[in-house]
Amino acid sequence: MRMDALTPSQLATLEAALRAMVAQLEETIEDAAASVQAVELDQAAVGRVSRIDAIQRQSLAQASREALKTRRRLAQQALAAMEEGTYGECRRCEEPIAFKRLEARPESPFCLRCAR
Ligand SMILES: [Zn+2]
Predict the structure, then answer these.
(1) What is the rounded CA–CA span in Å between residue 98 and residue 89?
(2) Closest Cα to residue 39, out of 58, 53, 52?
(3) Cα(96) to centroid of ligand 1, in Å?
(4) pLDDT tens-digit series, residues 13-56
(5) Residues whose CB is under 5 A from ligand 1 (ion)?
(6) Rounded (5°) CA angle 73-75-79
C-alpha cells in the first residue's frame, strides 16, 4: 500500500458521503424531471411572452438536470472505483488525490491540479 493511500476510516467516511450523495441526487433529479414537465404543461395555456419565459425556464431546468446526472454518474463511478481499490487515484496523472479534496468533492476523479 502506498504511504499516502487513504486510511480505512477515511475511505469509510468518503464511501458514506458518496452513498448519501447518490441518494440525494436521485431525489433531486426526480424533482427536476417533474418541474420540466410542469413547464411543458404551462406552455399550452400561455401567450407568446410567457411562452419564451417558459422555454427559458425549461432549458435552465434541463441544464441543471444534466449537471445533476453527470454528478450522479461520477459518484457512482467513484463507488465502483472503491470496490476495485482504485479510488483516490487521479485518473489522469495517477497521483493520489488529497483527502481534503476528496472530503470536499468525493466524486472527483481528478486531483486538483488535473481538474484545473
Ligand atoms: Zn492528477
Answers:
(1) 9
(2) 58
(3) 8
(4) 999 999 999 999 999 998 888 877 776 666 566 677 777 888 88
(5) 90, 92-93, 111, 114
(6) 115
